[in-house]
Design brief:
The chain is mainly alpha-helical. It is built from 32 helices and 2 strands. It has a two-stranded antiparallel ribbon. A hairpin with a 3-residue loop joins strand 1 and strand 2. Helix 12 packs antiparallel against helix 17, helix 12 packs antiparallel against helix 21 and helix 15 runs antiparallel to helix 16. The longest helix is centred in the middle third of the chain and has 35 residues. It is globular. The two termini are about 40 Å apart.
């Protein structure tokens, strides 16, 4: 049975408030609704180029400042300065909110004069004071919305032009006074209103709106019900439902945590009911939700940033992401099936599952809207306009359905959720813009790339290893979008200089920035799933790492040989895909200790770990694409892999000590 939209919106509100932020009073609710409506009107006016009809065409900078004037004040109302102030809005919050609104409204109003008089380099004294205040406001908004680590990185880099003359070696820069750094950050087009804000305002804002609309109208429950109807009766059915439903919703929303907390509350209890351990069930949900942000057709904000930075169509990013995401979800699916087979877990009773026909009859318009979005994205290539059309159609069809239509209060809740999401990301991209502005002002982007290449000794593999560690560390304290922007500016040029494919490099960065959601010490996706399952956060993270093991290795493979992201001749792509699919299946079986056609691998306790390691090694070698920078042919890898797999089978046949209990 399809849930009511108002219940879906309430659930979404609770999820957002549970993750971070405070509940606002009634006047704050009206303020959020107003800010969401006005910012959407501004965005639609610019994105659909309505100025050609009205004759009023604002500057880009004017539009960016206007959005910041609307959204940054909300950050100080939604996110407390510290946890002890989370109960109510204080005078400091209101002061910052009012100052942010007035200051950025002034920037928007006088943006033409600011540009014409070159305030970026020669502002009057009042302009310098305003720029310094805007700089401080942007940093504080970043701290509240993005957390301490993102704030620390943004602060360190934003003041780098001022103190860079004290830095050692190649990090040393010319001395820049405070007022010059402030005016460059606030009035220039390379910093606060630079690339990150540009992509947010011109592209991402529509997809954030669509994600909220999908949740508000019950799209998440529809995909879950559909997955239960199709897969629920198979062995380990609820876990397979989690993979499909969370993957689809994660792709559309791009948010790992909210996906865990919305789909996980249904899939995790169902998994436990058929026999999955709490930690394992939570690990499945964490992996499924994390992978969703890497899966076409939408993938999340970082994919749009990637298309913008590489100046390629979004369809090219989607095409490059297909094979890696298929391999990731295939590995997850096979591991679940192997685990269920190993532990004799059945599916759910058919009588307790929804019927496919009933689910589609009640929620057909979700499929229709999704198809429309994909067609507009990939065929008509209207990346910016597509989500607005899809959202409008979704809301219209939903309101025509008497069972699902939103009430007046529900519509208000929808705009409140939209404003919260807009405000959070607006603050994050403003802070990341300061990083890019500092590197632009000091001219250190090219220097950093050169020094990284020199440090790695011109070795792509060494540089990739350094990059993977850097991506992971930054991903533990920053959003994936923020980490991607920073690394795309600093690390990506160095990797490209070694001869690697640019799109593969950027995809590598996105993947490794997402890994922190399932990997300790932060593992936010795993920890949230553990809270839903009532399991151990650390044990859940370890299960998630095993289930998501392919995500750690595939990025290295598609960078060293881009056939796995669809680059190169079709023969090479098909051969690499064929080998990778088979290899991933063997890796998954080894990870879970179940060999298809043979049975449980721990039946021979004395050799089962040897057999599992050999099976994983064989799958790894088969998945590894031969040729390119990997100086081993596909044939050689296949021969060695076959030998490992045969030895694994042989190890299971060696007479030894039997065990009736699970060894792992």
């Amino acid at each position: 049975m399809q849930p009511q939209p108002d219940e879906n919106i309430t659930e979404l509100q609770e999820v957002q408030e549970e993750v971070r932020g405070r509940t606002l009073p009634l006047w704050g609710r009206y303020l959020l609704i107003s800010a969401a409506l006005v910012s959407l009107v501004f965005s639609i006016y610019i994105i659909f180029n309505l100025g050609t009809w009205t004759g009023i065409v604002p500057f880009e900078s004017q539009y960016f400042y206007a959005l910041q004037a609307l959204l940054l004040p909300l950050v100080f109302l939604i996110f407390p300065a510290a946890k002890r102030f989370s109960g109510r809005i204080g005078p400091i919050d209101i002061l910052f909110a009012v100052l942010a609104f007035c200051l950025f409204s002034w920037f928007a109003w006088d943006s033409r004069m600011i540009m014409d008089h070159g305030w970026e380099y020669a502002a009057p004294f009042s302009g310098k004071l305003a720029a310094l205040a805007g700089w401080i406001i942007a940093l504080e908004a970043t701290r509240r919305a993005g957390g301490a680590m993102l704030f620390s990185v943004c602060l360190l880099f934003s003041v780098y032009p001022v103190f860079g003359y004290l830095a050692p070696g190649f990090l040393e820069t010319a001395r820049n006074p405070w007022d010059f750094a402030a005016t460059y950050h606030v009035y220039g087009t390379e910093s606060l209103i630079g690339l990150p804000t540009n992509v947010f305002a011109q592209l991402i804002i529509g997809y954030l709106l669509f994600g909220v609309a999908l949740q508000a109208t019950g799209g998440g429950k529809f995909f879950i019900n559909f997955a239960f109807a199709v897969l629920g009766h198979f062995r380990g059915g609820p876990a397979k439902v989690s993979v499909i439903a969370s993957g689809m919703m994660g792709s559309l929303s791009g948010s790992v945590v909210s996906n865990v907390l919305t789909t996980g509350v249904l899939t995790i209890p169902a998994m436990k009911k058929v026999g999955f351990r709490s930690n394992y069930a939570a690990g499945v949900e964490a992996c499924a939700s994390t992978g969703g942000a890497l899966m076409p057709p939408i993938m999340g904000a970082a994919a749009f940033l990637m298309a913008f930075m590489l100046s390629i169509p979004y369809s090219a990013v989607v095409a490059a992401a297909i094979i890696p995401s298929v391999l990731y979800y295939l590995a997850l699916f096979v591991q679940i099936d192997a685990y269920a087979a190993r532990h004799d877990l059945s599916g759910m009773e058919v009588k307790n599952l929804p019927r496919v026909g009933d689910v589609l009859r009640h929620g057909w318009y979700f499929v229709f809207v999704l198809v429309l979005l994909i067609v507009m994205l990939l065929y008509f290539q209207q990346e910016a306009q597509a989500p607005f059309y899809a959202t409008a159609l979704l809301l219209l069809l939903n309101q025509m359905d008497r069972r699902n239509r939103m009430t007046f209060e529900g519509i208000g809740d929808f705009f409140v959720s939209t404003a919260r999401l807009f405000a959070e990301l607006a603050a994050v991209v403003a802070g990341v813009g300061l990083i890019i502005g500092a590197l632009s002002l000091t001219g250190k982007i090219g220097t950093l790339a050169y020094e990284l290449v020199r440090f790695a000794g011109d070795s792509p593999v060494a540089l990739l290893a350094v990059g993977a560690v850097t991506c992971f560390i930054l991903g533990t304290g920053m959003t994936s979008s923020a980490a991607y922007i920073f690394l795309a500016v600093t690390l990506a040029p160095a990797l490209v200089k070694t001869g690697l494919e640019p799109i593969a490099v950027h995809m590598f960065i996105i993947y490794w920035a997402m890994i922190s959601f399932i990997t300790p010490p932060v593992a936010l996706g795993s920890f949230c799933a553990a809270s839903v399952a009532g399991g151990s956060p650390w044990k859940t993270s370890l299960e998630a790492m095993r289930l998501g093991s392919v995500i750690y290795i595939v990025p290295f493979f598609f960078v060293l040989n881009p056939a796995l992201i669809g680059q190169g001749p079709w023969s090479g792509i098909l051969l690499s895909l064929f080998c990778a699919v088979i290899g991933v299946v063997f890796i998954a079986q080894g990870m879970q200790g179940y060999f298809y056609g043979v049975g449980r691998m721990e039946t021979n306790r004395s050799t089962h770990w040897v057999a599992r390691l050999l099976l994983i090694a064989g799958g790894f070698l088969l998945t590894m694409p031969g040729g390119g920078m990997i100086a081993v042919s596909h044939l050689s890898l296949a021969v060695i892999s076959s030998l490992c797999i045969f030895l694994a089978w042989l190890a299971m046949r060696v007479p030894g000590l039997k065990s009736s209990q699970s060894a792992a």
